[in-house]
What we know:
Blueprint: E1 23-30, E2 37-42, E3 46-50, E4 54-56, E5 67-75, E6 83-87, E7 92-101, H1 103-131, H2 134-142, E8 146-147, E9 154-155
Parallel strand pairs: 1-7
Antiparallel strand pairs: 1-2, 3-6, 4-5, 5-7, 8-9
Amino acid sequence: MNGTNRTLMLDGNSKLVGSYTTQYLLHVNSIVPTYSQTAWYNTGDNVSLRVARSLPVGGPLSFLGLRYEFKDWSGDLESGSSSINLTMDRPKALNANFVVDYTPLVLPAVLLLGILGGVVLVILRRKRTKSTPPEEQTADATAVPKFCESCGEPVEEDWTHCVHCGKTLRSPETVQS
Length: 177
């Protein structure tokens, strides 16, 4: 009989013998609920634990294709193998470590951001074109660029000095086009 409580009816001389077995607690913790467990094992028991290398994230995010990827075991035993064996010679605590693989979200997110960026650029260009008066648009298109006679760099028409070489621009007539 296993258990700690006994009910006996003694009706004469009896001899009672108790036998005890030492047991140790194994506690496995994980973010994947399937692999979290607590169990008692006899001294010297060999325990085999195995986890899947990859499995889908459950719940409302499962439709996004997110997955748990096994990383390693930590705690009283360190290993990168998905299958381990241990001997119960004392109480033990292990962590089955998993990471969430967000790769299925990366490509759609990049595409979405690219499309949104393109839409924003189109809106901003249309807004800029509409806000610039037509006479300014044609003036900019027909303006002849001016250059410094000393260094040849472009200069604005109303500048008195070249910002590139520092030379004095004498008058609009001396600035060549």
